[in-house]
Amino acid sequence: xxRFEWGDDSFLPGEKQVLQxxxxxxxxxxxxxxxxxxxxxxxxxxxxxxxxxxRSRILVLHLSLVVFLEEQPSGxxxxxxxxxxxxxxxxxxxxxxxxxxxxxxxxxxxxxxGEREFNQAFSEQLQKRLWEQSLPTATPGPQxxxxxxxxxGIERSLKQKQKDTDKDISKAFEDLSKLMEKAKEMVNxxxxxxxxxxxxxGEISEDETVKFKxxxxxxxxxxxxxxxxxxxxxKYYSELAKQLSKVLxxxxxxxxGIMTLTDVYCRVNRARGMELLSPxxxxxxxxxxxxxxxxxxxxxxxxxxxxxxxxxxxxxxxISDTTDLVKEKTSLTADELAQLQGVSVILAKExxxxxxxxxxxxxxxxxxxxxxxxxxxxxxxx
Amino acid sequence: xxxxxxxxxxxxxxxxxxxxxxxxxxxxxxxxxxLVLSYTRQQKTYSIDVRESQNSPLxxxxxxxxxxxxxxxxxxxxxxxxxxxxxxxxxxxxxQCLVMWRTxxxxxxxxxxxxxxxxxxxxxxxxxxxTEGEESEGTEFHGLENWLxxxxxxxxxxxxxxxxxxxxxxxxxxxx
Lengths: 382, 176
Description:
Chain A: InterPro entries: GLUE_dom, PH-like_dom_sf, Snf8/Vps36, Vps36, WH-like_DNA-bd_sf, WH_DNA-bd_sf. By secondary structure, chain A is of the alpha+beta class. Chain A has helices at residues 115-128, 135-138, 151-199, 208-217, 227-230, 234-254, 261-272, 279-287, 315-329, 334-341, 345-357, 376-379, and strands spanning 5-6, 17-28, 31-32, 38-43, 46-51, 58-62, 66-72, 80-86, 105-110, 258-260, 296-300, 306-310, 331-332, 361-366, 369-374.
């Protein structure tokens, strides 16, 4: 009987009432107690006995203290009983009606019957052990964990949730910032490897290493212009334009002085690593190239293709080169020219169209595609 | 047809694609016009059926597997019309046309100089004599179709170098 504590009939969060039975008396072991006529309530977490006459007399027994149940059938002038065998008294226990008892079991006497259903439900709950799921909040401290229903309770649980998410988020971002630090290291690493390869040039066999080298060399912008370092607005864009021009100048020279904006976008963003540029920002910066008098300029072809090209990149030279090349090969498609000059097909086509515009070549359009011939209409005189 | 002299352009694939470059196109169309005229002269044809012409060797070079598209043919023919070498017989549908590898004026001059060279001025001859007669054999206008001959003579008439007359159903002409 000393396992009972004084309590109320409120439920913990997640706790549910299972069954309730009138006319139940409590026995401490074999002895009668003063708790004679009460309503016995079984919840998923505890057993509650409520006095019918004195409503403030409420006893609570946690199901975690129950070991097993035993049924005692009714006899002559004896009501049916359930024997509840109990665990030892827990160390942290709220005051109960009896401070010490020699008995390790109590008996529930069902004067108004219903013992069979109760016994069944009771055993079921003991098997499910639902109280264990919210035990940590249920047991500690005299007041702690007692989530009263109502607005306070809801607010408290919301606050708890918020705290948890805050924790999760900051944890997640901690990882991200670590990753950023690593990215910088990776860029540095690639630079050192590139430098090493440069030093050893000649020692290592060409072809693949050279290719690898060129990839590495084109990688890595040590301190990319970002909104954080250079603010927003015009300043940011003009600084970005300067950096673009600086980075791209060499690369443009390597690929014939001209590159489509899409290629530029990919290359620049690869080089920037984590500080990615949006297409709009880049376009905006490219628009400033001319007004800043930088050596790299943006140009839009009649077809709508936008490219970046070196200022020194001479259109007339391209035209005469293309004209000569077509003359030499009799006829060329954009595809073939792209292969010959190592530029993209789009650019090769632009070159041919440009040359056609000034009459350097003429076209032959068939189902097989567009071919360009030397413009004999204008050059041949007979 | 083996005696037809094809220009070099005929073997040049871009010749069969209308060129977008204006200057190039001008040269190309010029070449086409002269090819059409020389072809019809050598073939002695005076009319073109547009649909049939698509498959004629004129617009279809089987050797290099290129042919001029319908649109392009019409462009070329329209250009010829502008220079007075062609006339649509059906102005709206544009399926049939008359080709004059010499304009009526040119024909008129040719005939008149032939007349002068034979001192036939002030004599009357029939149209049949002019185009089918023994005397005109070997001249370019031998075999000239009647409608074109009439136009040529009319152009001479307007210059008061000839006068058309008709008697008993046969037409004649008197040169001055």
